[in-house]
Amino acid sequence: MGTFYNNAVCDIYIGRSAGAKLIQDIRNAKKNVKIVSPYLSPSLIKELIFLHNKGIEISLITTDEIEDFYGNEKNINKLIIQEQQVDEDAKQSYDSLKNLSGILLFVMIGLAIVLIPLIFFLQQPKFGFGFIAVVLLFLIRNYIVGEIRNKKIYHYTYRQLFPFKVFVSPGQGSGSINKTFIHSKIYLIDDEIAYMGSLNFTAKGVKENYETRIRTTDPNAVHKIVEEVNRLLSDSELAERDVQYWGSQLYSEPIN
Questions:
Q1: C-alpha–C-alpha distance, residues 43 and 75, integer Å
Q2: DSSP structure string for 136-185
Q3: Considering the entire predicted model, what is its pTM?
Q4: What is the dihedral of CA 116, 117, 119, 124, to 10 degrees?
Q5: Which pLDDT score is estimated for 122?
Q6: 57-63 vs 32-36, strand pairing mode
Q7: 10 Å Cβ neighbour count for 97?
Q8: What span, in angstroms and rounded, lies between the C-alpha atoms of 72 and 186?
Q9: Where is the PLD phosphodiesterase domain (predicted)?
Q10: For 193-246, what is each residue's pLDDT tens digit?
């Protein structure tokens, strides 16, 4: 893993607002944007979603250190789409049980309404035995209600809004022997402009932090960078977070 290229022609920037030109180039993309950044901010995820909706092809490589995964504004939810499937046989059984539960409730109430006047107004205590039937109906209905609550009629799968990989950070308990942390910050616009440096795709990195970055349109250099990013996107041996796992962590999954 790795790429070396010598004598590239590039611009160098050091200081605050190192991402101003980068954001401008990303917003002006005509075909595609490819990003490698271990950290992301919600506002910049929105930028990628906006470009995707405009028809720009987006590819993203990040880590499970995503800034807004555990926060209140989880824009990662917009990158992972939940799709719900219905088990039709289970749904039919669920509906039948609900109907039966309603019928039993109606019968219990009706029977109680009949028995109470017979016992108290007609002074016929023997009709009190009828409440044994009410209790039995109650127990049966209570069992059915439990079956309704536990009946699983929905199953869930997840898909990505656009292609992205989330690599597992070392120390996250994945069980992987891989210790490599994807710490690179690489940005490609239309496979013609490349940025590299210390600049994360975060609000602070783009605007506030004292960062370093280079920008190059050198065709040979850009070609080498494109090859490396494409390799990470298509054929990496590093441990990844599975989209189905992440989806199940992000969304609730009611069973019925």
A1: 8
A2: HHHHHHHHHHHHHHH---EEEEEEESS-EEEEPPTTS-------------
A3: 0.75
A4: -150
A5: 61
A6: parallel
A7: 16
A8: 28
A9: 178-205
A10: 999 999 999 888 999 999 999 999 999 999 999 999 998 888 767 788 888 887
Residues 6+ apart with CB under 8 A from 222: 188, 191, 192, 193, 194, 216
Kindly report the number of other CB atoms within 10 A of residue 242's CB atom.
Answer: 11
Tokens of 246: 């992440």
Between helix 42-53 and helix 20-27 the angle, nearest 10°, is: 20
The residue ranges of every structural domain in the chain are: 11-84+156-241, 88-152
CA 254 to mean position of chain CA atoms? 16
The strand pair at 154-160 and 193-197 is best described as unpaired
Architecture per CATH, domain 11-84+156-241, reads as: 2-Layer Sandwich (3.30)
Six token digits for residue 214: 């280079």
Of the candidates 38, 2, 10, 48, the residue with the CA atom closest to the CA atom of residue 222: 10
Tokens 């005509």 belong to 30
Q: Supply 3's token pair.
A: 């790429």
What radius of gyration, in Å, describes the C-alpha atoms of the chain?
A: 30
Q: How many CA atoms lie within 13 A of 40 on its CB side?
A: 30
Backbone angles phi, psi at 127, to 5 degrees: -70, -10
